[in-house]
Amino acid sequence: MNVLVINAGSSSLKYQLFRMEDASVLAKGKVERIGMDTAIVTHEPAGGAEFHEVKEILEHTSAIRRVVELLTHPQQGVVSAMSDIDAVGHRVVHGGEAFKHSVLVNDEVKKEIRRLFDLAPLHNPAAMLGIMAAEAAMPGVPQAVVFDTAFHQTMLAQAYLYPVPMALYRRHKVRRYGFHGTSHKYVSERAALLLGRPLAELKLITCHIGNGASCAAIVGGQSVDTSMGMTPLEGLMMGTRSGDLDPAIVPYVMGKEELTLGEVNSMLNKHSGLGAVSGISSDMREIVEAMEAGDKNAALAFDMYAYRLRKYIGAYAAGMNGVDAIVFTAGIGENSAQLRRAVCEQLTYLGVAFDADANAVRSSAERRISTAASMVAVLVIPTNEEWVIAQDTYNLVQGLS
Ligand code: ADP
Questions:
Q1: Which strands make up the sheet holding 377-380, listed edge to edge?
Q2: Is-contact 212 241, C-beta < 8 A?
Q3: For residue 105, how many C-alpha atoms fall within 13 Å in the half-sphere facing its CB?
Q4: Is 287 annotated as a binding-site member?
Q5: Strand 2-8 versus strand 87-92 pairing type
Q6: Are 2-147 and 195-385 equal in CATH topology?
Q7: Which of 31, 346, 374, 395 has most Cβ atoms within 10 angstroms of its Cβ?
Q8: Quick one: DSSP state of residue 187?
Q9: Phi/psi at 51 (nearest 5 deg)?
């Protein structure tokens, strides 16, 4: 069975076609600048030459039609006909409280995703465009949706409620949801395999550190806490997002700087974090480069980033009353030996014996970066959210037959 995974943004669409039998990626690619007469299509068939084109693509349905043409093309294609694409899996950011698992798409599911537009105004409408487009371009092909929030629905009220008037929760669903769930779930399962221990026995802290960043406390395979909240702004310091701050700053700054709600929202989401503190870049590679060249602001941004992550690890170890392993994943977690070192060398109180040599080795493999004697294992595990989406879709579609 072949499953097409789609991650739709408001003006872009990324895709991967998986052959489930051997977990191979047959092709992947993206369509950028949807809505323009100069949309960019990039298509990478496995083992074949990368294909690029610039053409008019005005909406998502045309984008998916073009993707299907390329996947079935005599030269660039990897399957012979659309009937070789057995199912489509979509990434949807916000599943609210309604979705605790991935589900097949039907009218009720679409209605519920629309109801959640308020909670994820940037992301859910874009995902819905992808779903509608795939339905139009690939009629009759079953579709599933996989939510970033679903894995964290196991959190207890003590972790997901904010200490504010409960009417806000009852009336407006103001609560913590958490994100990056497919990634936290995937790396926690891989961690158990790498450690050779049942997931059911483990207490894990998973750190998904990319442009967006969150960590999760996972007991027996279930998320019990996570750093992102009602929106992906809470928690760790990120590339352009502030993460945690005193909420009183918002009205104070709005008054002093005469900012509108939209402006303050944009400041905290797009003009804060590493980029704002360093004044250089929101990209960790450039921060590390500048820091190593002696830039003080870059060093400060890096130190704040590492310090805030270390505090969350401490909090989650406390919350779970112990931790067996800490897992690093995503762009920074997988690649930045400097960041991992800055975080882990100061976790000796937890029983972490960090292996600086293993940490310094550049590799894309799953690996351990703590010594054999370490009481708490530290692991680097490349994430694979698309594979989780493909697997969930596959399992749901199997259930249909
Ligand atoms: P997204 O959240 O957009 O999926 P990624 O998981 O791709 O983001 O992570 C992007 C981040 O990873 C950027 O800050 C980038 O600098 C960082 N990164 C990627 N490669 C490296 C590297 N070799 N060293 C340090 N940071 C890296």
A1: 222-226, 213-219, 203-209, 325-329, 377-380, 367-368
A2: yes
A3: 27
A4: no
A5: parallel
A6: yes
A7: 31
A8: H
A9: -115, 130
Question: Are the CB atoms for 131 and 105 separated by under 8 Å?
Answer: yes
Let me know if 22 is a catalytic residue: no
Residues with Cβ within 6 A of ligand 1? 210-212, 239, 283-285, 288, 330-332, 335-336
Amino acid residing at 151: F
Q: Coil, strand or helix: which one is 290?
A: helix
Q: Single out the catalytic residue among 37, 86, 148, 244.
A: 148
- Residue closest to 244 by CA, chosen among 157, 309, 332, 173: 309
How far apart are the CA of 331 and the centre of ligand 1, in A?
A: 3
Cα-Cα-Cα-Cα dihedral sign, residues 175, 180, 186, 189: negative
Predicted structure pTM score: 0.94
Q: What angle do CA 85, 384, 307 make, to 5 degrees?
A: 155
Concatenated DSSP letters of 344-359: HTT-GGGT--B-HHHH
The ranges assigned to domains in the chain are 2-147, 195-385
Angle, helices 296-320/284-292, rounded to nearest 10 degrees: 120
Instruction: Fold for 195-385, please state it.
Output: Nucleotidyltransferase; domain 5 (3.30.420)
DSSP assigned state of 192: H
Q: Which fold has domain 2-147?
A: Nucleotidyltransferase; domain 5 (3.30.420)
Asked whether the beta carbons of 133 and 61 are under 8 A apart, the reply is: yes
Report how far apart, in Å, the C-alpha atoms of 83 and of each of 87, 118, 224 are. Answer: 10, 36, 41
Q: Is 77 annotated as a binding residue?
A: no
Residue 193 CA, chain-centre distance (Å), reads 21
Per-residue pLDDT of the chain (401 residues; tens, 9 = 90+): 999 999 999 899 999 999 999 999 999 999 999 999 999 999 999 999 999 999 999 999 999 999 999 999 999 999 999 999 999 999 999 999 999 999 999 999 999 999 999 888 888 999 999 999 999 999 999 999 999 999 999 999 999 999 999 999 999 999 999 999 999 999 999 999 999 999 999 999 999 999 999 999 999 999 999 999 999 999 999 999 999 999 999 999 999 999 999 999 999 999 999 999 999 999 999 999 999 999 999 999 999 999 999 999 999 999 999 999 999 999 999 999 999 999 999 999 999 999 999 999 999 999 999 999 999 999 999 999 999 999 999 999 998 76
